[in-house]
Each structure stands twice: as C-alpha cells, then as structure tokens.
Amino acid sequence: MRKIFRSVFVVTFFMLSTSTSWAQQKSFLWKEASEGGYTYKYVTNDPTQARFYTLKNGLTVILSPSKKEPRIQTYIAVKAGSKTDPQDHTGLAHYLEHMLFKGTDKFGSLDWAKEKPLLDKIDGLYEEYNKTKDESKRQEIYKQIDQVSGEAAKFALANEYDKMMSGMGADGTNAFTSFEQTVYVEDIPNNVIDKFLAVQSERFRNPILRLFHTELEAVYEEKNIGLDNDGRKAVESMFEALFPNNNYGKQTVIGTVEHLKNPSLNAIRAYFNTYYVPNNMGVIMSGDFDPAQVIKKIDESFAYMKAKEIPPYLFDAEPEIKKPIVREVKGPNAAFMFLGFRFPGAASKDAQILNLMANMLTNGSAGLIDLNLVKSQKLLGAGAFPYVLKDYSMLILQGNPSQGQSLEQVKDLLLGELRKLRKGEFSDDLITSIVNNERKAQIARNESYKERAEELMSNFTSDLDWANELGYTERLTTITKQDIIDFANKYLNDENYVVVYKEQGVDNSVVKVAKPTITPVSVNRTDQSPFLVKVNDMPEEAIQPVWLDYDKDLQKGKFGDIEVLAVKNKDNVLFSLNYKFKTGKWDNKVLGLAANYLEFLGTKNKTSEDFSKAFYKLASDFNVSSGNEETNVSISGLNDNFEQTVTLIQDLLRNCVVDEAAFKAYIERVKKSRLNAKENKSAIMEGLRAYAKYGAKNPFNYTFTDEELDQLKASDLVKALHDLANMKHTILYFGPRTVQELGASLPALKATKGAFVVAKAGEQFKELPTTKNEVLVANYSMKQAEVFWFRNSDLYNVKNTPVNSLFNNYFGGGMGSIVFQTIRESKALAYSTYAFLGTPAKKENHYSVGAYVGTQADKFNEAVVGMNELLNVLPESEQALAIAKGSLIKSIASERITNAAILNSYVAAQRLGNTTDIRKSVYEQAPKLKFQDLNALHQKEMSQKPYVYCIVAEDGNIKQEDLKKLGEVKKLDLKTIFGY
Q1: Does residue 133 lie within any of the structural domains?
Q2: Does 257 reside within a domain?
C-alpha cells in the first residue's frame, strides 16, 4: 500500500531572506494548444511543462519533457485496484498485475496453437477447483492442474517481457496495485521508445494467464510476508475500522487467504475486460523526448483499444464516528499504536488543507509533535501522516512508547498535541515556514523524472485537477492561524477516532497460505518468440555515453589545510554541504551516541527548540551521522540562506552544552531502541551477516553493554562533538557558488587556531576467510524463513569490474536473471530472491558472495537445494547473456551522473584507488566477454565453495537435521548477535 501525500509542483522562485516572502505569485490556468495535428491542454506556469492529451478512444496521455538525461520515466496506470475487486474474489486486481508480465498469444509462447488447448483445460480445472468444497476432491483436481500446467509450460517462454525490457536497457521494471490504481512502471533510455510502445501496446492487447499456478505461489508468498508484517496488519485493521462501508476497509489489496486459495481465471479475465480499457487508463511519461513526436507514436500504438463504459464504484457514506473505536493487533515487533481520523476525499479542499495540518504536527523539525513529544523525548518516536485516497482521506498518527510507557499513555500524549492544535497553541509563523519548506522541496522534486511522473500519475488516478494542484502551495499563503484552528476543531476531537494498539505477542489468528504441491516447470532459455525477435530487430539510434572527468567535472580547492570539492549547481538555488571526517564508531564508540544526542542539545544562548525552529524557518536541514569509519555533518537549503545555515550548524556543533535531563532521557531512549531492534527480523539478519563476515566480534555488536551505557556521562558525548568540530575534514559542496565564492562566504568549522584534534585509532575489524560451511540460526516468530548465503572472497581488483558487472546482470540481479527465473518462475520457491558478487567499498576490503531466498518454512529444503544448484553450476544461455550485455551497455550509455552525485562518485572512486570513471572500462570491455568468462568467475567465486548460511526462522519450523546437512550449526542468542 502506498501513502499518497498531497504535494504539488510550484514555480521555482527562492526566498530572498528569512524576513521576505517568495517572489510574486503565479496563476495556474488551463490553456489549449495544438501541435502536429494533436490538441492538448496545459497549465500556465507549470514547471513540469506537462501536456495533457485525450485520444479518440479516451486514452489519457500526459507528457512532461525535460532534457536533463536521455531517459524516460514511464507509468501506465489503470484506474482500478483492490477497491473494485469482486467481493467473492478479493485480491484479483493484484493477481492480474502479476499476470500482465506473462505475455500474450504473440510473445511468451513457443507454439500458441499447442499451448492454448492446455491453458483452456487449466481454466476449466480452476473453475471446478473453485467450486469444489470436498478437500480430497480438491487435491485431486489440483494434481490435474499441476500436471496440465507442466505440459503447458513446455510451450511457455518464461520472462520474455523482462527479456525485452532488459534488452532495451530498462531499469526499475515493476508494477504495483493499490486501492484504486494498478500501475506498470518502466525507466527506459529515450532511444528505445518505439520498442517500448510496441511491447506495451501488445502487452495490454490480449494477456494470457500462462504459468498461473507458479505465479499464484509467488502471490501466496507475498501474502505470507504480509502476515509477518506487523505494520501492514495494523494498517489493515485501521482501514477496516475507519471504512466499514467502503472496500478500503472491507477488503485488502492482496485479498483473503480463502480467496487466494480459490482463484478464478474467468473472473480475472472479466476484470481485465471491464477495467483495462482506454478511457480508464493513462500513459504518463517524464523525460527527454519531443512530445509532438511521442504523442503520435502512442496514438498509433494504442489505437486498437476500444472505449467501454466503466461501472461506477458505489458505496454508502460512512457513519460519523461518535466514540473511539479500539482495535488490537499482535505480532513479534515492538509495540506501537496508530490513531486514525477520517477526512473527505482527494478532490476536496479539506483534503488539501489536511497536508498542511499534518505538517503543523510533524515536519521533522518544528511541528507540535516534533518539538513536544520527540525532541522532548516523551516518546521514542511519533509522527502524523496524511493518507489521501479518492473517496476518503485520513490523518494517521503513530506513536512508539518509551521504556515503561503503555500504549494508552502514548495515545493520550498524541491527543494532547491535537488539543493544542485546536486551541491555537503553536507559533504564528509556523504556517509561513511550512509553505517555504514545501516550495523548497518542490524545487528538488522537479529535478527528478520519477517524482514528476509519479505526481502526474497520482493526479490522474485520483481524478484531480492539475491546475488546482499546482496552485495549492500559493493558496496556503492565504490560510491563517484561525483557519487551522477552525479546521482542527471541525475534524479532530477526543472521540471521533480509531485507535489500533499493536501489542507485542503471538497472533494466533494468523493462518498462512499453505504450500501447494507444485512440480517445477521448465524454463526455456534458448527459444524466442517471433515477436521478441521483431522487437529486438527494431532500429534504435545509439546513445553516446558521457564519462566523468574528475579533473574537470568538479572543482578542487583548499581552505587552509581543508580540502574542498565542489560542483556548481547551474539549475536552481539549492545547495548541500557536507563536512566529512575520517573517524567513526570504530575509533570512538561514543561518537555514534553523540551524533544522535546533538538533536536534543542547545547552547548557552539557544535551546534545542530554538535551533530546530531556526533551521526550519530558513527552509534548511541538518544531519549528523557517524558510521563505522566516517562521520558526516551535512546541511542543505536555499543559497540565499547559506550563511545563516552554516552559522547555525557551526554554533550548535562547537558550542553545544550538556543537558543532563536530555541525556538521561536519551540514554533511556537508546536502551528502548536497542530492545526494539532485537524484535526486528531485518536487524537480526543484519547481525547474522556481520557475524558471517567478521566473526563473533564484529562491527554490528561492537557497542556498549547496558552497564557501560549507565557509566557514560553527558560530558563524554559533548566532548566528542566538540572534538569533532576541531578535527581535520573534507568539505563537499554542491550549489550555485564557485569554490572561490564559497571560500569568501564559508567560515572555518574549527573556531580556534592551532593544531587539529587527532582522532585516536580504535578497533579494527578484519573480514575472515570463509573456510567451511557454517549455519548461523536465529529464532524469530514468523511464518516465513529467510536464508542468506555469505562468503568472503579476494581483495578488490579494478580489472575485475567489467566481468563482475556483467555476471551480476546475468546471474542474480533483476527479474530476467537466472536466479529469479529459476527460483521463482520455474520452481515457485520464493517471492523475493537474488544473488550477487559484491564489490567492497574500499580497496583494502574483500569481495563478498551473497544470495538470498525468503520462502515459506515448509519450502526451506527445496529453496536451499535450488539455490545451491545455481551456486554450483551456472546455467548457460546465449540469449540471456546477450540480453544482459545489452541491458548493461544501454544503461551505462544513458546514465548521467550529475549534481551532488558527481562528488559521491569521486569519493567512492578514491576509496577504491580509482582515478577515472570505472563505467568506461565496463562499457568497453563487457561486449567482448563470453559465457566462458562468466563461468570462470562463477567457478572461482561460487561453485563448490564453503558458505555461511544465515537463517532467521521460528524454532521448530525447520528440522535440526536439515540444518546439520548444510554445515556446523550455531544457534545464536540475541545477546551474542547484538552485543548487549
């Protein structure tokens, strides 16, 4: 499920100072124009320059051109999702989304004439299965489905869609289903638009539901993942309580277990024929293209589609909530709670104001919840989030308790902040600060093709007026404090909410989708459909790659002894600045705590709240983070507020003073966060992987014990911060100023003369050679089992980069890879799976081999065997290799490293000892590589090698004897994993 925040693109003017307003307001009016025989609408002063077309068959096309890089972000959106699922077939829209990757009668099939009768037979068997109640008869029918599916699979060409898109150099091939939208996502080079449209128009012409029962198993896996996700369960409980009359609450996106186990292919086709029609669909593109040419191509590609009447979604209005509705959810993660309030739908004026009100409560710096609950450390974490949908909107407040707090106390604290909002107990200039920060954020968002296209797509699926959306931020400038008070009193009180308490415990109500008996289907890696060959043979004009020249693309300077690296921002008025220190938690464990403690500190002249408000008023951000070997102090904001922002961060870092009350609360906060981490399966897996890489003593558990925490003093943390300010560092700057201009306006971070503080060398962790098979097991209450294979390999060698890059493309990265096709598509053993040869961050470090499968516990043995087969023997496919080469080369050719990413690229190259853009070597060498080169790498790095198996699963779900078959078993307790 996706949170859709009401945010808009606005004209990119900048604030001249903290006391002045932004430049004059612009009007956003609909206009009409024509070019190339096509009429379109547009909105004046639209920074996205979007053109809105409606083709003769009703298809909406929204085109937003830009010349920043030779790529195009595309969305093909259908105004249909789980809300319009039939009540007796919930999850159907999501099923269909998966099946739109399986091809048509023209691609995905080796011999359609022979495949079709078998698929028709499968259709009939599923209908019989759907209607049969006797379990023994159902099992017999499913055996028939499995047998016929195996026969039909012999004619299937798996993953032809992914192969075609990969061959074009597409990135981010994906799709998602939400309540009222199903969206298909691609990021393509701009020279393959003809190929892209050929594939997409065919994709929606006549989708064939082939390989259905293996994909069904992938959906089962996705459902089981959701059953293990406490956050998802809590949100679903919230929606169920808020919307008893609307399908937002009556049915979930993935559907019920009962419906998942009883699919109907006929119902899926009926859904497709009803909603996948041009007057209910939109093609949205943002990127480097000529809209006059592209609209003609889209029209020609989708002209075959015929408009149909769309059945309206009807629902009864929700009853007013007159007293709190209480729900409880249980799960293994740490306790938290949600408060939910209902608002009108996306098109209403009140839904737009909702976003402003949410920012009054939470904006990361100066909101009521930020200051009164988070910064004051009354809660471990808290926030307010708008969730805007077509029929209704919501304000959801989340709270995470501190040590010893009940969820009822968390609820009362959050309700207390809403009372302050209703009474007007907030700063008079908070609205102005929010508007300025929103405008700054829009400048940044407009730089991204993806964010532009996503905003336009969401606008389309929610039936919103783009001109109205563009004018949103300008209208906020007219809203007064009294307006907010009135709005809060209208919608928020102490009775009209839903509260969901997510308690820690065992959820006995969860029933996982049981593993069906599925015979692995063959994966045809050799043959190709005529359609695929035709698409591949379509001409395309080559894109010439652009390499970074580290001597020309960034400016290098010196401010005294401080190295400065800078890239000029020629596009807008935003800047970012990073003080980078070569010291981290390995040198000083206190530094990690100190970096986060700074958030709660002030100076002799300013409180912590004063700093938060000052940064937010400037529309500036700051962040201090300490990693293992490096610490960064970062600021960003508007160029005209550069000096004030720098002054603020330097004042805070140099002059912060001890706050004993904040320190005591902070240490309790740290302890609670550490307890919560032990209840998080991702954190547990991270700890297992660190153990596999470094051994029992590793960076993950290199931390303070509880006893050591109690011995710490606030002055220890403040001293670490003061010392940091006086250490030698490198400055990374991206913004409108040159190095010379920066030198004139940037005061030194170190305030006093004399030598720099030198960080003492601390703990050093060395990667251990992987010499034997080991099994590291951690217990976690979950329906799934997660397995990660790990081994350390050789030291970094830049000469290996081309073959490593191609190997990862071929073997384990993406939906068209060998691993994904085999583990998921052929054997239906996992929803998520991948494998890779990982490049280290520094030249002194080693390559690592990693592989992952997240699977149902009852498929553990099959999944492990399946991955081990691939790790030992690399399947050969000349077609797959050609696709992997084409994908890699085209992606590199169309990639443009710009802005602050140039600085990051240079720093990363330095760490590896590289002096040039390594992509050039990959681009030149990869086309020359053969399967023998990849196989040699596979033999050297993966085949018949020892591995450490990192396994997170529930005790009893995996047999001990099965674990012992893999290697020496070590069951690690949480104290060993986490170090406390």
Answers
A1: no
A2: no
Whether residues 570 and 663 share a domain: the answer is yes
Compute the Cα dihedral for 962, 966, 967, 970 and give only its sign: negative
Query: What DSSP element (H or E) covers 138?
Result: helix 135-153
pLDDT band at 14 (very low <50, low <70, confident <90, very high): very low
State the total domains in the chain.
3
Per-position b or e across 833-869, b if 16+ CB within 10 A of its CB = bbbbbebbeeeebbbbbbbbbbbbbebbebbbebbee
Q: Which of 745, 765, 789 is the last residue of a domain?
A: 745
- For CA atoms 252, 256, 260, 266, give the dihedral sign: negative
Other beta carbons within 10 angstroms of residue 396's beta carbon come to 22
Whole-number Å distance between alpha carbons of 400 and 293: 52
Encode pLDDT of 445-466 as tens digits.
888 999 999 999 999 999 999 9
Separation CA 581–CA 712 (nearest Å): 24
Rounded CA gap, 457 and 281, in Å? Answer: 10
Does residue 933 lie in a domain region? Answer: yes
Return all residues near 71 (Cβ < 8 A) that are at least 6 apart: 187, 188, 189, 190, 287, 288, 449, 894, 895
Residue 306 to residues 134, 150, 273, 281, 309, Cα–Cα distance (Å): 42, 35, 11, 12, 10
Among 213, 313, 211, 208, smallest CA distance to 260 is for 213
Asked whether 255 and 91 are in contact (CB, 8 A), the reply is yes
Domain range for 456: 325-504
Find out whether 328 and 335 touch, Cβ atoms under 8 Å. Answer: no
In terms of domains, do 434 and 477 share one? yes
Helix (H, G, I), strand (E, B) or coil at 764: coil
User: Quick check: is 640 in a domain?
Assistant: yes
Q: pTM for the complete prediction?
A: 0.92
